[in-house]
Amino acid sequence: MQPWKGCTTLDQEESLKKPLPVASDIRVGIGGWTYAPWRDNFYPAGLAHNKELAYASRQLSAIEVNGTYYSTFKPDTFVKWRTETPDDFVFPLKASRFTTNRRVLGEAGESIERFVGSGISALGDKLGPIVWQFMPTKVFDPEDFEAFLALLPARVDGLALRHVLDVRHPSFMSPAYLQLARKYKCATAFCDSDDYPSFADLTGDFVYARLMRSEAKRKTGYAPQTLDAWADSARVWAGGGEPLDLPRIKPAAKSAASTRDVFVFFINGAKERAPAAATGLLKRLGIQAPGA
Known about the structure:
Blueprint: H1 10-17, E1 26-31, H2 38-41, H3 52-56, E2 62-64, H4 67-70, H5 75-84, E3 91-94, H6 97-100, H7 109-116, E4 127-133, H8 142-149, E5 155-156, E6 159-160, E7 163-166, H9 175-183, E8 187-188, E9 190-192, E10 206-211, H10 224-238, E11 261-266, H11 274-285
Parallel strand pairs: 1-2, 1-11, 3-4, 4-7, 7-8, 9-10, 10-11
Antiparallel strand pairs: 5-6
Helix pairs in contact: 1-10, 8-9, 10-11
């Protein structure tokens, strides 16, 4: 599925006429910062490995952390990430796999508490949305899924939490799922991929997009016109509209939002091209990375 190529509705046209939101409204990034091929095409030659986060956080405006899905980190680690990165940078965190990879989701309360209480609040205002990723084999069970959503905390140590649901089984492509996600004010990750359900229906008050089609043959990961189109989509989302040419479960309703936060991550595909795609999108949006 390719992103929309132009404005076909009045809402889209009006969204694009609005001034570009400030940098904090649209964030663009990649998944992680430790990846050997990036030392050939993103990081400066000879850069010490322990300086890679500091460098990446000054070229991008967010990094999605995948390591928290597999391991538990100490509060000191989150403090270190916070101090090494510039103001206005954020870290969305993927929640522990033990919270979502289970037969009965409604029994995840202890695992959720353990993850949320592991020290993530040490990131302070650099704590981004929490991404709850479900296995592709996890079928949508409305009753059990609602029991899980009811367990998600609104705050930790005084910090407001924002939740993203990354659902990967086709059974989630249903109005019943949308209704539940909206009831609990959770965003749904829009995954631009043929491998997972891809639908852009908004279920929260912010947008979280994971773009997964970068190509190794292109130094920028995407064709220029495709990055142009994603820049337009980000502007429409940030301006309170919806790019209607993206796949959906239900037709878009007119939004009451005047602006909304947008997170766009280049994930998977040809991973070695992700930084080039992300910096290319930031350039098209006219957004300077926080520490640049």
